[in-house]
């Protein structure tokens, strides 16, 4: 901005030299002009810069504004639908234990220690056990190689008794499993990821998770996944327990259980709250009241209770040229205590941004805190120009 130096010259002066009183007047005029200009800009748009309206857009997509009301939270629009467990999981019931490749079997033939403990009675059961080879066969004296994979314990006992009866009178045979080849693999946020053996007693998801132990600080309890036969099934343990669903799932050999970490499951609380931060949660959702409470609540001095927004972004996986998705902004008027009862029933999702806008007086205070240094700079510049002309 250029100023006409003649504005500051005394009437009738031809020398162009400032006197002290006129220099002060010139600086004051410049500072006052800056205040008027900045105030006009502020009144023209700065005060509404952090407000949202239904006409806003995000990257060319429409932004849908929705009020958070009792009708909204009871309608189920904002809630995450609970997914029931697939019938093929809940209906599966394991039959009697079937021998698997990798199993170690201890065959006991009463009154015949040379067959029961060929390595010696002082040795462990594992040393005297019979390994089932990867092809599903097992070798046993007087019987030879026998295909045992898929047999039950009772079927193998009966087969051995009939084969040994050719050499022994009325053989009494017993079979037990001392080592398991059928296992369930545990991965992710477990404290113990050692494989779980599938023995003669059926193993369920609850037992496997209990044996593995959950890293309660880092695990996402809603993301447990069972991988079976190339297909993945989500098992939301948190939602199941809250619904009182006590059904359990029996596991098969080769099943994998993956419990994800929750480091990517966050909501972001910004604006006029006591402690703006990213919040990690380990359940299916977090309520808006919980998020505000964990950040210390709305700042009682600077916040605007009518400007609480939840910004839910666009799901890129659902975007198509024919049906572009729209972002959704949920608006809560939180000036009354009753509003937080509604907010307690409003669930947040991973990636949501909670924004609390500033009160009008806060914007004015911040504007003037930025304007005062500016006016000081303008004053200094005017005084320097005055001194230079002197």
Automatic annotation (TrEMBL):
The keyword Ion transport applies. The keyword Membrane applies. It is found in: Cell outer membrane. It comes from the Bacteria. Keywords: Cell outer membrane, Ion transport, Lipoprotein, Membrane, Palmitate, Polysaccharide transport, Porin, Signal, Sugar transport, Transmembrane, Transmembrane beta strand, Transport. Its main location: membrane. Residues 93-178 form the Polysaccharide export protein N-terminal domain. Residues 184-258, 265-356 form the SLBB domain. It is a multi-pass membrane protein. Belongs to the BexD/CtrA/VexA family. This is Polysaccharide biosynthesis/export family protein. It comes from Lysobacter yangpyeongensis.
């Amino acid at each position: 901005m250029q100023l006409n130096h003649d504005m500051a010259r005394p009437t009738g002066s031809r020398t162009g030299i400032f006197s002290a009183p006129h220099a002060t007047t010139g600086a004051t005029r410049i500072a006052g002009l800056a205040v008027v200009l900045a105030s006009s800009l502020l009144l023209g748009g700065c005060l509404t810069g952090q407000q949202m309206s239904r006409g806003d857009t995000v990257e060319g997509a429409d932004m849908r504004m929705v009020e958070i009301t009792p009708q909204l939270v009871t309608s189920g629009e904002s809630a995450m639908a609970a997914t029931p467990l697939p019938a093929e999981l809940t209906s599966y019931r394991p039959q009697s234990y079937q021998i698997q490749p990798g199993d170690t079997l201890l065959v006991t033939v009463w009154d015949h220690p040379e067959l029961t403990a060929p390595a010696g009675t002082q040795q462990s059961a594992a040393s005297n056990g019979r390994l089932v080879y990867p092809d599903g066969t097992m070798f046993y004296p007087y019987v030879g190689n026998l295909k045992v994979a898929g047999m039950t314990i009772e079927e193998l006992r009966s087969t051995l008794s009939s084969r040994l009866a050719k050499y022994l009178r009325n053989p009494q045979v017993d079979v037990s499993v001392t080592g398991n080849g059928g296992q369930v693999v545990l991965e992710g946020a477990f404290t113990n990821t050692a494989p779980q053996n599938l023995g003669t007693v059926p193993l369920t998801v609850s037992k496997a998770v209990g044996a593995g132990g959950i890293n309660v600080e880092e695990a996402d309890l809603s993301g447990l996944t069972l991988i079976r036969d190339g297909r993945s099934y989500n098992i939301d343990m948190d939602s199941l327990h809250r619904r009182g669903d006590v059904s359990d799932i029996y596991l098969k050999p080769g099943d994998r259980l993956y419990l994800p970490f929750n480091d990517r499951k966050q909501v972001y609380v910004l604006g006029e709250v006591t402690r703006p931060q990213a919040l990690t949660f380990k359940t299916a959702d977090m309520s808006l009241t919980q998020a505000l409470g964990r950040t210390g609540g709305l700042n009682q001095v600077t916040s605007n209770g009518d400007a609480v927004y939840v910004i839910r972004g666009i799901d890129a996986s659902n975007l198509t040229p024919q049906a572009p998705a729209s972002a959704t902004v949920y608006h809560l008027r939180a000036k009354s205590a009753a509003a937080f009862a509604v907010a307690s029933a409003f669930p947040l999702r991973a990636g949501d941004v909670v924004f609390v806008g500033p009160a009008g007086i806060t914007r004015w205070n911040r504007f003037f805190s930025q304007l005062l240094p500016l006016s000081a700079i303008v004053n200094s510049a005017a005084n320097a120009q005055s001194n230079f002309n002197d």
